[in-house]
Backbone:
């Protein structure tokens, strides 16, 4: 194999990417090396069907052909990025250990996944604790007010579920011979075996507190049940004598609101801790930003990291907030004559939905205007173009300007 | 004021300062104040303020402090709180926060300050006060819920720090609510200096309410031997709050060297620091001046006259800085606008004594708040501008007011651009008390009856934020005209239409660009209509964009400004 291949699997609403490339140390024969990024999909919705992991993981193992996986990258701690390998270990290969078959040499996990991280990063810890506290209260609130549970809320709660995420990340921490927790500025020497390919981390910043923004104050107003199994109930206070009743009820209602902002804040903060990997190889520059959202893109810009790339895995499934604003997109995907390639993992296929469904299924992700903009700047493909568990291959050859794209049956 | 005879009265305790005050050697943590309103109910609840003590864990409404009407033969009622103040007692907290809010309101309404009952910016009679809004290092005013929300948090020794028990924090947030009623455009302003004024008035409210306390004045001056020249308890805002967070006071008003050039022009909190430092320096000068006058008059020591001198200086300072707010032109304003309003207010009350005005101009100039002295020159309105106009009709009839403003002479007088739609606010009658000296030097008082006439409109300017935003944006501008109800003479005319002052306008526009860029970078400002959250309701922690596709209008920026950065 003398080409670099990026294989982007259709795992429905999630990421699983296998990069295979010949890596030639100066004056020596090339060795075929592999990088696996993420593997996971969204829970609680159609986009989170677990059965897709079996063909994907079998294919990864086939491609490794008994060789060890050189580098595994967990971009960030979200279920649609971390869930797949643990599922494979427990459900697909219960007799043979997936870990022993993958034989991962080095694993890069986002810095804040380090169990020691919050002991040394006080600001981030405060934000993280606040986020966890809020998610617990939100669980209680949804139990008391099930009508509030929109698909979007359900999806956000599932993706950000601290307990299940912790389980998956614990598994990934033990996956490789060497586990590294990385951020922009980490010394990457000796943290991977690549000699010819250049690996660079553009994000996240080490201090993840910068990604949180502000939390809205929320007062859910819940009365606990008497027994342990009793559901909490919503407290419905009445205006006392002399108090403007309209203003009173509005206040009570508004004090409950704000949870929508907080869910998005927490979701974005985790997305923004994504490892953004730039891979350079024989004249090609490829970018894998996980689910980095605008806050992270702005930070990368501030740190002068942004540069044109020929391949971009679209961040955060093509959402408005995950796509760099146009002035930054100009830096990454300039509107010029260079052939550029982008790929998007989202589910389901927007084209197959009615307008009403498009609005509510996965909150309009990908965003239609984002798709139009990406199509204008690049050759855009979506993983839904191939069947579940299938893949899109991009083949990049040294010294050429164009890549070859093939879709699995 | 007109309903004086129908008012009820209570005498209730309020915090002198905050919970740290007692350990500083003072025995009295509280002082009693008298409050009047049309009625008092449990809560406390009155016509204008209602305390709602929600249980932070369950959201249930706790019983409010019980109102005890006056005993027979007595005119003053009270609330049922322990005689020995206990800051952990719910009833005490409810009553103290109520008293502090009301005292701040009273301070603004004094006859020698605004001389009128303040109005809220929201459509409702009551300001709702939540003394335990939840656990968070924060406190804020929220227009859309008509509320002041005070949070609490654990301090370094795990003691609970209630922001609702800190006199300066409560006064600061009440200041936001009051200013919002006086100058509602500042809530939607995108000019950083406009937003900074919101913060500054909060700080000045805290400062002035602290100085009003005899107990606190005595304690501070005792400690400083009669001076406020250095950093004192008065200049340190939210000291308990800051110390509980492991830092110093949240904001210090005392900074002799801070200038506009040293701070981030797009940061309202930074800008506020410069403005309040400038004003605090003027207060220090006024205090020193008063002390010397009192010493000359009484031959007493500096320390012994310092308390009275501070009370007098602070009263005049209040007349200048808070009375100015009614003269502010509507719309987005700059520090220069506020400076001119202060000058105009002081010129009206002390036409023959310009010393304090000179100090204001000196400080504004020294701190870079204005670039030249002439910027703060306030010209008297043309004497004949209201001749042959039925002023009573102008005050009471909306159509007469509109027609006056819409005529050629009216537009010219009020600086309304031609072909621009405008809105005339309901005219405000005010009754102000002025102090002056008779020819023989003896003190005298005079009541001036004024009408305030405010008109405003939107102006468009280039919006060079980013290609994805509309290319134009709207900024509110306006004019305030005040006239004497008895003589019909115009007293003040101030406008925020800066089209004739291009330097000032360019500077303010550049600052707006900086602020909007910052909001965009923080993800608080997104193009397009207001976004819905996952609960299908508008998101609350974003700045709203209103208006059509080609012209952007930003709203609710001040909502993002809390006492804590």
Residues:
């Amino acid at each position: 194999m003398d080409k670099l291949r990026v294989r982007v699997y259709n795992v429905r609403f999630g990421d699983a990417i296998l990069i295979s490339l010949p890596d030639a140390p100066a004056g020596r024969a090339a060795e075929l090396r592999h990088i696996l990024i993420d593997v996971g999909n969204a829970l609680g919705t159609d986009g989170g069907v677990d059965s897709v992991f079996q063909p994907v993981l079998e294919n990864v193992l086939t491609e490794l052909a008994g060789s060890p996986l050189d580098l595994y990258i967990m971009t960030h701690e979200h279920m649609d990025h971390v869930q797949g390998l643990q599922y494979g270990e427990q459900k697909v290969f219960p007799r043979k250990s997936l870990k022993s078959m993958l034989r991962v040499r080095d694993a890069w996990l986002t810095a804040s996944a380090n169990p020691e991280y919050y002991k040394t990063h006080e600001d981030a810890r405060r934000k993280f604790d606040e986020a966890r506290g809020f998610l617990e209260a939100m669980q209680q609130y949804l139990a008391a007010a099930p009508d509030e549970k929109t698909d979007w809320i359900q999806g956000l709660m599932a993706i950000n579920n601290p307990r299940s995420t912790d389980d998956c990340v614990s598994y990934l921490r033990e996956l490789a011979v060497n586990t590294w927790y990385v951020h922009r500025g980490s010394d990457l020497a000796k943290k991977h075996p690549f000699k010819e390919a250049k690996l660079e981390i553009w994000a996240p910043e080490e201090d993840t507190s910068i990604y949180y923004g502000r939390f809205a104050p929320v007062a859910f107003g819940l009365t606990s049940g008497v027994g342990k199994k009793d559901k909490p109930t919503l407290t419905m206070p009445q205006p006392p004598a002399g108090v403007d009743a309209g203003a009173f009820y509005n206040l009570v209602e508004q004090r409950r609101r704000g949870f929508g902002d907080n869910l998005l804040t927490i979701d974005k903060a985790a997305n923004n801790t994504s490892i953004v990997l730039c891979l350079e190889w024989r004249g090609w520059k490829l970018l894998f930003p996980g689910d980095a959202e605008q806050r992270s893109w702005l930070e990368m810009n501030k740190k002068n990291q942004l540069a044109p790339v020929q391949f971009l895995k679209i961040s955060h499934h093509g959402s408005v907030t995950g796509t760099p604003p146009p002035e930054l997109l100009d830096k990454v995907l300039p509107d010029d004559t260079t052939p550029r390639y982008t790929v998007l993992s989202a589910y389901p296929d927007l084209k197959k939905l009615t307008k009403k469904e498009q609005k509510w299924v996965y909150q309009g992700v990908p965003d239609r205007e984002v798709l139009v903009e990406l199509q204008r700047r690049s050759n855009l493909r979506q993983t839904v173009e191939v069947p579940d568990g299938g893949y899109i291959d991009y083949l990049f050859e040294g010294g050429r300007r164009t890549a070859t794209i093939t879709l699995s049956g | 004021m007109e309903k004086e005879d129908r008012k009820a009265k209570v005498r209730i305790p309020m915090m002198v300062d905050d919970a740290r005050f007692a350990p500083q050697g003072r025995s009295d943590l509280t002082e009693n104040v008298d409050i009047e309103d049309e009625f008092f109910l449990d809560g406390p609840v009155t016509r204008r303020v209602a305390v709602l003590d929600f249980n932070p864990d369950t959201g249930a409404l706790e019983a409010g402090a019980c109102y005890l009407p006056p005993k027979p033969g007595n005119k003053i009622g009270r609330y049922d709180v322990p005689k020995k103040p206990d800051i952990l007692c719910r009833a005490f907290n409810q009553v103290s926060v109520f008293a502090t809010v009301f005292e701040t309101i009273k301070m603004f309404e004094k006859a020698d300050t605004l001389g009128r009952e303040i109005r809220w910016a929201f459509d409702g009679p009551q300001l709702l006060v939540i003394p335990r809004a939840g656990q968070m290092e924060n406190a804020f005013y929220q227009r859309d819920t008509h509320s002041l929300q005070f949070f609490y948090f654990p301090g370094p020794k795990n003691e609970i720090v209630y922001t609702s028990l800190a006199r300066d924090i409560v006064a600061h947030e009440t200041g936001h609510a009051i200013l919002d009623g006086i100058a509602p455009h500042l809530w939607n302003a995108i000019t950083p200096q406009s937003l900074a004024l919101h913060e500054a008035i909060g700080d000045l409210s805290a400062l002035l309410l602290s100085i009003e306390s005899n107990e606190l004045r005595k304690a501070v001056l005792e400690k400083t031997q009669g001076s406020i020249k250095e950093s004192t308890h008065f200049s340190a805002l939210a000291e308990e709050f800051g110390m509980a967070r492991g830092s110093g006071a949240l904001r210090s008003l005392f900074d002799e060297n801070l200038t506009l050039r040293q701070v981030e022009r797009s940061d309202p909190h930074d800008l506020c620091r410069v403005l309040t430092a400038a004003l605090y320096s003027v207060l220090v000068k006024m205090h020193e001046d008063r002390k010397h006058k009192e010493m000359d008059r009484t031959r007493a020591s500096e320390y012994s006259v310092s308390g009275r001198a501070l009370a007098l200086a602070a009263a005049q300072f209040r007349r200048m800085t808070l009375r100015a707010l009614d003269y502010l032109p509507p719309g987005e304003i700059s520090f220069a606008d506020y400076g001119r309003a202060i000058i105009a207010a002081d010129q009206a009350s002390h036409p023959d004594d310009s010393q304090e005005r000179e100090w204001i101009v000196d400080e504004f100039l020294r701190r870079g708040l204005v670039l030249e002295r002439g910027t703060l020159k306030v010209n008297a309105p043309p004497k004949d501008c209201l001749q042959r106009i039925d002023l009573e009709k102008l005050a009471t009839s909306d159509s007469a007011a509109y027609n006056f403003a819409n005529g050629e002479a009216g537009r010219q007088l009020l600086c309304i651009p031609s072909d621009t739609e405008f809105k005339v606010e309901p005219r405000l009658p005010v009754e102000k008390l002025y102090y002056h000296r008779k020819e023989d030097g003896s003190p005298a008082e005079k009541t001036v009856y004024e009408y305030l006439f405010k008109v405003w409109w939107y102006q468009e300017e280039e919006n060079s934020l980013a290609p994805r935003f509309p290319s134009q944006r709207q900024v509110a501008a306006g004019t305030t005209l005040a006239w004497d109800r008895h003589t019909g003479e115009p007293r003040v005319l101030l406008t925020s239409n800066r089209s004739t002052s291009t330097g000032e306008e360019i500077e303010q526009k550049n600052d707006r660009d900086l602020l909007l860029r910052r909001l965009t970078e923080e993800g608080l400002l997104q193009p397009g209509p207001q976004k819905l959250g996952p609960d299908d309701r508008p998101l609350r922690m974003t700045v709203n964009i209103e208006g059509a596709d080609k012209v952007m209008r930003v709203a609710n920026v001040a909502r993002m400004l809390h006492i804590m950065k």
